[in-house]
Amino acid sequence: MVFAVEEINRNSTLLPEVKLGYRILDSCSRYPWALQGALSLVGGDTHSCDLSASVPRSAAYEQAGEAAGGQPVPLLIGAASSTTGIIMSRILGPLSVPVISYLASCPCLSDRTKFPNFFRTIPSDIYQARAMARMAIRFHWTWMGAVIVFQQEIQGKGVCLEFIETVHRETILTPFTAFSPAPTETALLCCECIFHGYIIFSIWCFQLLQHLNKVNITTPQGERFYFQGADISAKYDLVNWQNTPEGSLKLVLIGQVDGFDIHLNESAIQWSTGSNQVPVSVCSESCPPGTRKANRKGEPLCCFDCIPCAEGEISNKTGSLHCDRCPSEFWSNVEQTACIPRQVDFLSFNETLGITLTTAAVSGVTVTTAVFVVFLYYRKTPVVRANNSELSFLLLLSLKLCFLCSLVFIGRPSVWSCRFQQAAFGISFVLCVSCLLVKTLVVLAVFRSARPGAETLMKWFGPGQQRGSVCLFTCIQVIICAVWLSLSPPVPQRDLGFQGSKVTLECAMASVVGFSLVLGYIGLLACTCLLLAFLARKLPDNFNEAKLITFSMLIFCAVWVAFVPAYVSSPGKYVVAVEVFAILASSYGLLICIFAPKCFIILLRPEKNSKKRLMAR
To answer: Helices 574-604 and 415-449, interaxial angle, to 10°?
Structure first.
């Protein structure tokens, strides 16, 4: 400090015709003594620090103190800590006494409204803190410990802190720090003395305070020096401790900090790992595309888990906070990173389910055709002729249509296939059930006509009347289908409600009423047939087939009663599969229950195929 004052006095160009005097006091690193010394200097009293004396006195600068003798001073250079600087500035502020510190670096002292008389020749800690924060963000370090000022600078920057500590300046200035003042600051800071003291300049306070606000000089090294409020511009060298081949350490310049700007040569950095690769400092690795962040309870935001996106949702960038749902006609790919068009799905002939149902339908047609051939070949026998062979052949034809109509439900739906499949289904089954109903009526009429006085009953159930009845029952269904398909027919439609990578192409029922009438009419005929067959079940076994019809209609009704809830609850293409299965199951039930016993007699028990055997009781 003495050297600096003497250099100024020897240089006539700095302060022409002005000589500086000084007086140095030691605060003994105690706030009350620092304040007492400052007030004594401003008030013109003598004061020194002597721990053994009632009035402390400094022997080292006793002569200088006596020379300055009781003369008040207009300016103080001191406050080796920010706390001391705050105390001195607030006490001496009303007196307009300038306080210039060479070591108080608290950012709070930059507030000119609170500390208008404070100046310092060391940059505020805010520059170092902001430089460190920017370096942390630049190297993507999101998990670290911090000092108090640094904590404020990284708020809202996506950086989390493992611990927060208050670090004293004595610790910050230890040799291992990565920041060292540039030459300008070095020249200003080298004035620190062993004693934390105060220097007295003999110029008036207020004028001096105004003059300090306008200071703008150039150092012998060609660098400008001026105050920006209470501060000076910050310039730091960024240095890196590196190992030399000899095993020693050396400082290598890797960049500079100029104010709030950082100029860094990353290629010159040698990390503690011994390589140029930037070390990773994160609590959790960034979530890759296809996942989202899920914060851990009770932990900082930088600590999270990566949760895979749900099906139908994607995230296409790293570190996504949430997953985005794909549009209705798109679905997520396997990696959950992109939305791709959903594949059109329907009950196809090429898939296992389609092949199975097709095989069952073709087998049913084949078996029905074989039975038809057997009945045609043995049409003259009593078993075939009994109970109107014409209805038996018509029943076999309707069963063949039932098996064939199931094939219309398999394959890609189109406008015409959607219309034809329901009409074919409804008409084929009504034809089939009508034949069974008329057969049951004939059985009842035959046995009723055997009673005295009922001979004319069979006139109403002759072959013509039987054919007419079947045609009447079938025409009613034809009319229902015609009205339904003309007003509100089923149309091909994509079912987007079912979540998955596939969208089902199905025949949508535009009118549920029409479909319900078709099923309801079939159910009405089936229940009527079941009731009449049940009433005729105790008639002679060898003559009528009432028991066979009863059993077949029980199976038929059970299949279609189970069909309704299964149809409503099945997803996607399985709705069609359920309906096809119901058609095939009920058709096989009728075919086996009605014709299997007769074929057994015709082919394996021909001795029972006689009129005498049939008429026996």
So the answer is: 40
The answer to whether residue 181 scores a pLDDT higher than 70 is no
Q: How far is Cα 186 from Cα 291, in angstroms, rounded to an integer?
A: 51
| CB-neighbour burial class of residue 486 (10 A; exposed 0-12, middle 13-18, buried 19+) | exposed
Quick one: tokens of 149?
Answer: 């000022």
Q: How far apart are CA 249 and CA 419, in angstroms?
A: 89
Q: Find the DSSP H helices in 44-168.
A: 62-68, 82-92, 125-138, 148-153
As a whole number of angstroms, the distance between CA 25 and CA 48 comes to 6
Determine contact, residues 406/583, Cβ cutoff 8 Å: yes
Question: For the segment 489-518, what is each residue's pLDDT rounded down to a tens digit?
Answer: 888 888 776 667 778 888 888 878 888 899
Number of helices and strands (H, E) in the chain? Answer: 18, 21
What pLDDT score was predicted for residue 567? 81
Q: What confidence score (pLDDT) does residue 229 get?
A: 81
Closest CA to 101 of 132, 131, 124: 124
Neighbours of 494 (CB within 10 A): 16
Give residues with Cβ within 8 angstroms of 451, minimum separation 6: none
pLDDT 10s digits, 456-474: 555 666 677 888 888 999 9
Query: Which residue carries 């038996």 as its tokens?
Result: 392
Sheet hosting strand 216-218, strand order edge to edge: 216-218, 224-228, 231-232
Q: What is the pLDDT of residue 53?
A: 40
In angstroms, what CA-CA distances link 576 with 117, 201, 563, 568, 579? 90, 102, 11, 11, 5
Strand-pair category, 179-181 with 231-232: unpaired
Contact 526, 454 (CB under 8 A): no
- pTM for this entry: 0.56
- Phi/psi for 16 (5° steps) reads -60, 135
First to last CA, the chain: 141
Evaluate whether 171 touches 147 at the Cβ level (below 8 Å): no
What average pLDDT does the chain have?
78
Buried b (16+ CB within 10 A) or exposed e, 607-617: eebeeeebeee
- Nearest-CA neighbor of 200 among 74, 78, 62? 74
Structure confidence by residue, pLDDT tens digits, 26-60: 777 787 888 888 888 777 765 544 444 443 333 33
Residues in Cβ contact with 370 at an 8 Å cutoff, skipping those fewer than 6 apart: none
- Can you say whether residue 2 is alpha, beta or left, with left for phi > 0 and alpha for psi between -120 and 50 degrees? alpha
359 sits in which H/E element: helix 352-377
Flag the least confident range among 23-32, 88-97, 576-585.
Answer: 23-32
- Say which residue the tokens 């640094």 belong to: 150
Residue 523: count of CB within 10 angstroms of its CB: 16
